[in-house]
Amino acid sequence: MRVRGRAPHAWPWHGLLLLVLAAGTFFRLAQLDAQMLIDDEWHAVRMLLGADYATIATHFGLADHSIPLTLAYRWLYLRDALDEWSMHLPLLACGLALLVAAPRLMRELPLPTQAIWCGLLAVSPTLVYFSRTARPYAFLALAGVLAFVAFRRWQAGGRHRGSWALLYAAATVLAGWAHVLALPFLLWPFVHHGVGALLATRDPVRRGPALRQLLALAVLAFAVLGTLAALLLPPLLADWGAMSAKAAVGTPDIGSLYRTLLMQFGLAQAWPAAPLLVLSAWGAWRLWRRDRELVALILGAALAGALLILLLRPAWIQHAPVLVRYAAPMLPWLLLFPAEGLSALVALVSRRAALAAPLAAAALAGLVLAGPLPEWYRVPNQFMEHAAFQFDYDHATNPYWTQLELGPVSPFYRELATRPPASVTLVETPARAVSNYMPDPWLQAIHRQNVKFALASPVCGMGDWDEYRPGPHGPHFRRVLPLGDILSGRERGGDYLVLRRHPWTLPRENFPWPTPWPDIEACARTIEESLGAPVWRDAEILVFRIPPWPPAR
Length: 553
Prior knowledge:
Blueprint: H1 11-29, H2 41-49, H3 53-57, H4 67-78, H5 84-105, H6 111-123, H7 125-132, H8 137-156, H9 161-178, H10 183-186, H11 188-200, H12 207-238, H13 240-245, H14 254-265, H15 273-290, H16 292-312, H17 320-326, H18 331-334, H19 336-349, H20 356-370, H21 373-376, H22 387-390, H23 399-402, H24 411-416, E1 425-429, H25 440-447, E2 450-455, E3 480-482, H26 483-488, E4 496-500, H27 520-531, E5 536-537, E6 541-545
Parallel strand pairs: 1-2, 1-4, 2-3
Antiparallel strand pairs: 4-6, 5-6
């Protein structure tokens, strides 16, 4: 029986909904304005700086840049409005919208299940990460909910049937355009309902409605697939070689699939996995009794989509976070099962109905403590998207911790740790925003100060040691600045400029530094001409004080 909002015991669940919405908003927003762009977030930037709209729309690129996102970023770039915040904002909006849309669209669920489902979405480390990164995964998760709900409502008929068909088509087309591997999941409803309609044609009584259903499915499929073909065929043809070269490359094993399962639940350790799986199975069974079609649709899409991706064997699929990201459209739905199971459990163990919601809140809090979120939000931490945090939630199985060789740490960083946290801003150069070449997450945990990067070219010579080279319209990043702007006084940047004498890689034998290192001594002499002699010098770094800006008269 559905719990009505006016029931005496409904107010604690409404309170829990507000609480988890606040928590989900906090996790998605905290320190976001200070986050560094890392790893795949740079794919779009590199593409838009050297390509026009037509080129972006007709190429996936060697490194997939997500066509619609890059087009939007190109539009901002040409208007001098591209920075870290504008890149993060669309995905942040999708992540927040998911928390509101999912329980709202599934109002047929009991209120306790809605509230707990929203809670699991709010504190899911994976969904939090999706909302904080300038990649399309937060949109794919939202599109998965919108597409399945819209398809079900379209199938059910009614006077808004056309609007639901349009919503399904829009969500599926945009998601497939943003990331083509979302399509095995989002197109599954055609298979699910098509097979059911075909089987129904064998019954003379149901044959007429089944044939009409097949015709409607064919019309909608033609519209969706035709639009997808218009958007995806040009880049597929243009980059077929690059795309095919990334297939039949990765091979997952049982261990990586197990780590994928843990990441789906947002767990750093294995011990909570068993009770969560039991709750999920119980919840799926309870939902099956009320709505078999929904459970069959979710499980069918998840299994068929994952199986197809595993058969394609795309590059890096042997690493758990890759399959988790590709399966983003299904993650919110898979969390519905433990939400239903936990709803039943708290109802079973609480003697009074008013205690069920607090028990559910305690369980959600326990999940947060058992996961990686508490570690992510130390102050400051500008590197939450680094592989040290996102490759694997357990340090014992994360190679960025098990293979860590931080090497000598300058005493300058340890001296900074004696000052109040986040009271100093360091500008580090040369620096690359690629996890394998970034010691900064570990260094920041030592010195506890703010960090920016400076582009060493052309001050330190011309080379490929920088993440990108600004174009005529910027981008105007606040955390990655041209070194020349700091030296000329056009940009203060921070309190200290740290010139790194040596490159850093992890692990060194597998990921050697990819480009020649600049002549640091020559670079230091150029910097001295503007900033004066270094205030710190050792075997690892040279440190220059950046004068106040604007300069005092």
